[in-house]
Design brief:
Elements (H helix, E strand, L loop, with lengths): L15 H20 L3 E2 L5 E3 H8 L4 H6 L2 E3 L5 E4 L4 H10 L9 E10 L11 E10 L4 H17 L6 E7 L3 H15 L8 H9 L10 H9 L9 H17 L4 E2 L11 E9 L7 E7 L3 H4 L7 E7 H10 L12 E5 L2 H16 L4 E3 L6 H10 L4 E5 L1 H6 L1 E6 L5 E5 L3 H9 L13
Parallel strand pairs: 1-5, 7-8, 12-13, 12-14
Antiparallel strand pairs: 2-4, 3-4, 5-6, 6-11, 7-9, 9-10, 10-11, 14-15, 15-16
This protein binds histidyl-adenosine monophosphate.
Length: 435
């Protein structure tokens, strides 16, 4: 029978098993970002809607149809954040980060919301981790950002299953010229375009190049190439990005039709594509957004960033057969029978937990056999068992749940024996301050 209440369409619970993957990814991201000098930022889950319309572009899919909109009681229009870059740039300006030594390097790990048609790998609430470098135009930074993304993919064991697609969309001026060329190329050929592309033609012609419809792809392959209008500075920037990537040993595929779906980009754009079938094949993407800080009211400030979808990464990690270490595994199950045993068991549970050992104790009145059965179902590594005889003799039975063997030990030695097996993982107060 299905439950009376179900989660809304396109959103889902992150169940304990998936949290193993989430924690694993977050740990790698935190480690790699910190190592490269990034500091963590969290922007609110919702912003004034202008933050997104202004930055992502009025005619992008996200702004046109994918934002979750709300109105405050005073009539202010708000939106749940569909992506992270706009909020980070808003925060950079609001908190005077332009006065800090540049570039400012920030990372985030957060839920985002897009009202799109749900399918595998595409949800209405999903998680992204991302990083932004604001205040540096050098192409070496582009290569470093791409390298960091690649390195995280490698740590996750999926770098060789992903292909890095790389392109440049040049400066704002050359892009404007290119858009005009595209409009003249497509004019008169509208009948061969899909409905979406017909609408995009005058609003956002670059998007016609990365449409997935077959007829649109054929036309895109015949469309004028960006090369023809790109200025020399943009060409040089792109050439250097590629040289640096070669130096860093990051393999890439040049893809002249890659344009990305957000208006704020300029110059370098990139995505990591999975080789497996299916439309939702980008695990992450990013690029330069040299005009955005100014667009949002700041001084002209170059910037570049990247974001990846955590749910999509988890799918690929699972497909690759990678299982993160299960830190939730029950290490010790304490079984006891009778009130005197229970009284001795409670402080023992705490003493074991203090040593950082994952310990579970039965509190019901089930037989010892039933309790050991429960330990087995929980996949506990060891059971410590205390019945009436053991209480009287101040002993315990230590059962190795994997081997099925057991021995009697002194109650007073129980904690030391477990520490011998699992190590002393007492939390270091100082480490609590580490994220
Ligand atoms: P994006 O390509 O829109 O870029 O999203 C980045 C990643 O988020 C995608 O590659 C995908 O893995 C994941 N993603 C996006 N939408 C969904 C969805 N509906 N369900 C599941 N996963 C999804 C950005 O968001 C830019 N802010 C990246 C960036 C940062 N550019 C510069 N800095």
């Amino acid at each position: 029978m299905s439950a009376k209440f179900q989660s809304p369409k396109g959103v889902h619970d992150v169940l304990p098993d998936d949290h193993l993957f989430f924690s694993y990814i977050k740990k790698i991201v935190r480690h790699r970002c910190r190592q490269s000098g990034f500091r963590r930022i969290t922007t609110p889950l919702f912003e004034n809607v202008d933050v997104f319309t202004r930055s992502l572009g009025e005619s992008t899919d996200i702004v046109e149809k994918e934002m979750f909109l709300m109105e405050s009681k005073s009539g202010k229009k708000l939106a749940l954040k569909p992506e992270g870059t706009a909020g980070v740039v808003r925060a950079y300006l609001q908190h005077g980060m332009a006065q800090l030594p540049q570039p400012v390097e920030l990372y985030y790990i957060e839920p985002h919301f897009r009202y799109n048609r749900p399918q595998k790998g595409r949800y209405r609430q999903f998680h992204q981790f991302g990083f932004e470098v604001i205040g540096e135009a050098d192409p070496a930074i582009d290569a470093q950002v791409i390298f960091l993304a690649h390195q995280i993919n490698a740590d996750l064991g999926i770098a060789d299953k992903l292909s890095l697609q790389l392109n440049t969309i040049g400066s704002l001026e050359s892009r404007q010229k290119y858009k005009e060329d595209l409009v003249s190329f497509y004019t008169g050929k509208e009948r061969s375009l899909c409905e979406d592309c017909k609408k995009r033609l005058h609003k956002n012609p670059l998007r016609l190049l990365d449409c997935k419809e077959e007829d649109c792809q054929i036309l895109a392959s015949m469309a004028p190439k960006f090369d023809s209008v790109m200025d020399d500075a943009s060409k040089e920037h792109y050439a250097l990005v590629k040289e640096y990537l070669d130096e860093l040993g990051v393999p890439y595929t040049e893809n002249p039709t890659l344009v990305r779906g957000l208006d704020y980009y300029s110059h370098t754009v990139f995505e990591f594509w999975s080789q497996s079938e299916g439309a939702q094949n980008a695990t992450g993407g990013g690029g330069r957004y040299d005009g955005l800080v100014e667009e949002m009211g700041g001084q002209p400030t170059p910037a570049i960033g990247y974001a990846a979808g955590i749910e999509r990464l988890i799918d690929y990690i699972k497909e690759a057969g990678i299982r993160p270490p299960n830190k939730d595994r029950v290490q010790v199950f304490v079984a006891q029978l009778g009130l005197p045993a229970k009284k001795k068991a409670l402080p023992l549970l705490n003493a074991l937990r203090e040593k950082g050992i994952n310990t579970v104790g039965a509190v019901g009145k089930d037989s010892l056999k039933a309790q050991v059965g429960l330990a087995d179902k929980m996949n506990a590594r060891y059971a410590l068992i205390m019945g009436q005889i053991e209480v009287k003799e101040n002993t315990m039975i230590l059962r190795d749940m994997e081997r099925g063997s057991q021995e009697t030990i002194s109650f007073d030695d129980a904690v030391d024996r477990m520490v011998e097996l699992f190590g002393d993982n007492t939390i270091d107060e100082n480490k609590l301050w580490e994220e």
